[in-house]
Amino acid sequence: MTKRAVIVGVNDYSVQRQHENWHSLRFCVSDATSFYYLLQDAFLFDPKDMFYLADATASSSVIRQTLRYVLTVSQPGDVVCFYFSGHGGRTPHPSNPSQMYETIIPYSGQYISDHEIFAAADSLPPSFVNFTIIFDSCHSGGMHDESERARRSRSPIFSPALISQLTQCTTLFPCGICLPPQSRQILANNISRVSARNKGVVIEEDANRRLVKESKSTLIAASTAAETAQEHEAISHGLLTKSFLDLVNASNFQIDHRSLIDELTKRVGALMTKHFPGETQSPQLRGQENRMEESFLQGWRDSR
Predict the structure, then answer these.
(1) Confidence band for 156, pLDDT divided at 50, 70 and 90
(2) Separation between Cα atoms, residue 177 and residue 298, nearest integer Å
(3) CATH class of 3-87+102-154+173-182+207-291
(4) Per the count of CB atoms within 10 A, which of 77, 133, 289, 295 is most buried?
(5) What pTM did the predictor assign?
(6) Partners of 5 in the beta sheet?
(7) Are β-strands 218-221 and 284-288 bridged in parallel, bridged antiparallel, or unpaired?
(8) Sign (positive/negative) of CA torsion 188, 191, 193, 199?
(9) Which residue has the higher pLDDT, 271 or 123?
């Protein structure tokens, strides 16, 4: 079994800001650095099989090429981890106003949606390779105001035109669940009550469709579709990454996915209560329904 990883952290959004009304972030690169060593020390990833991309090296094309490489060379029983810390966003389908896509936003170039990640994993047998994705970013673009909290949010402020487009949507495709195109109808009409709020969009999501058998990956996302992911100078990290670091403190650490999300939810909740009282951020477990009792970042023991 080989464990491979692509670890990405983006603080500097000055290039993307030339086109959008965004702020740069402060602790995403330190998140990526800490997660790199977490994978190495606690989950026994070999540095020669790990690819670290930060700020200017984390362009869209480099991220996608590196991810495609580690997936292409993977064999049954291997593990691939894709970690991203930075801004997340949303974009409407170019021709279907009822559909929207969550994205992660690189230092430069095209935003990366589930479509691009699936393209990299297209030949990956989901029943053999553990493809785990961790996003310490948010995709709502909602609940923005002029407060200090907004400047700590890992989501850009959306333009009025984009907000108008997004409020027409009824289906959300989360970034990182790797659904084949022919299976995307499973998520049809999975959101409701889409509305503009402050300088973003908030929604209600059908929680019963976060886990699907057709997914080629397991996704741990920093927040729900109606929340924003936060970072704070008191901890010098994003809240999700800090919770990972505090939870995983032993070599060859093992935990199943449902227990992991329960622990992360408690820890992120405690940090929110301390640093952002009155607000919520709830980590989410998405993706392969039939693998949730398996151990996090361990090779599959069988095919399903």
Answers:
(1) low
(2) 18
(3) alpha beta
(4) 133
(5) 0.91
(6) 50, 81
(7) antiparallel
(8) negative
(9) 271
